[in-house]
Write a structure and sequence with these properties.
Blueprint (H helix, E strand, L loop, with lengths): L4 E5 L6 H16 L7 E5 L5 H8 L5 E5 L16 H7 L3 E4 L2 H6 L4 H13 L3 E6 L3 H5 L3 H12 L5 H4 L3 E4 L13 H19 L1 H6 L2 E3 L8 H5 L6 E4 L6 H9 L3
Bound molecules: phosphoenolpyruvate.
Length: 254
């Protein structure tokens, strides 16, 4: 059985107080709704991890993710945060390979493979982001780009390690633009990802791991996107900053 997952990526938003307030609103919203088996993940910036972890610890199906981690175990990397440090906050997941990290911090597929290894060696579960940009889609390169991202950053993993992680398909042209991919486009890519994983790891693993969609997914379009056969939930940016919207997206599975 594949897990249904909704993860909120806060990006570089919210002060400590704003973050705590948002979590309170999310908790209130969740308590007012029917309990579901959807795994909810909040991915705030590093400064929030410890305080939010204390607030949500022990709540069923609610977990914390970091937005990045460094590839080294520890050392002289001023400004960086290690996987072990993340684990010490109570964080269980980490977003790796977000397109903003690829674009603004020049993170390559090869570097991301190292981040995945370090995260997993420390017991963190990567939410690994892949996706093509607009010019790549316009020249019909999207399948090749995604295949390369999978091969260079994930396909060195053992079957056991691969089976633990989450993949998020996030077309760069849809992130923060309001240009949500259509459910047909999303399903096409998700089934392609599942097929590539099947070729590498076999059908048992390919049919069991979760693939999230991200890119202007919101309270209005989540239901249609989540209804696609190979979509197991969403990685939500902008719409995760408002508790009511985030809750509506979670409830899109009901
Ligand atoms: C994201 O940044 O992961 C994302 C999906 O953003 P948005 O929902 O704002 O497009």
């Amino acid at each position: 059985m594949r897990k249904k997952i909704v993860a909120g990526n806060w990006k570089m938003n919210n002060t400590i107080n704003e973050g705590l307030l948002l979590v309170d609103e999310i908790l209130k919203g969740l308590s007012e709704n029917q309990e579901s088996d959807v795994l909810k993940i909040i991915a705030p910036s590093f400064i929030h991890l410890n305080s939010i972890s204390n607030k949500i610890s022990g709540i069923k199906n609610l977990e914390l993710a970091a937005q990045d981690c460094h590839q080294a175990e520890l050392g002289a990397y001023t400004g960086e945060v290690s996987a072990k440090m993340l684990v010490s906050t109570g964080c269980k997941y980490v977003i790796i390979g977000h397109s903003e990290r690829r674009q603004y911090f020049l993170e390559s597929n090869e570097l991301l493979a190292k981040k995945v290894d370090t995260a997993m060696a420390n017991g963190l579960i990567p939410i690994f982001c892949i996706g093509e940009n607009l010019s790549q889609r316009n020249i019909n390169q999207h399948f090749d780009v995604i295949k390369e991202q999978l091969q260079k950053s994930l396909f060195h993993l053992s079957a056991n390690d691969f089976s633990k992680l989450i993949v998020a398909y996030e077309p760069v042209w849809a992130i923060g633009t309001g240009n949500t991919a259509s459910s047909e486009q999303v399903q096409e890519i998700h089934s392609f990802i599942r097929l590539e994983v099947e070729k590498k790891y076999g059908v048992e693993i390919s049919s069991r791991f979760s693939i999230l969609y991200g890119g202007s997914c919101n309270a209005q379009n989540a239901k249609e996107l989540f209804a696609c056969a190979d979509v197991d939930g969403g990685l939500i940016g902008g719409a995760s900053l408002k508790a009511v919207d985030f809750i509506k997206i979670i409830n899109s599975f009901l």
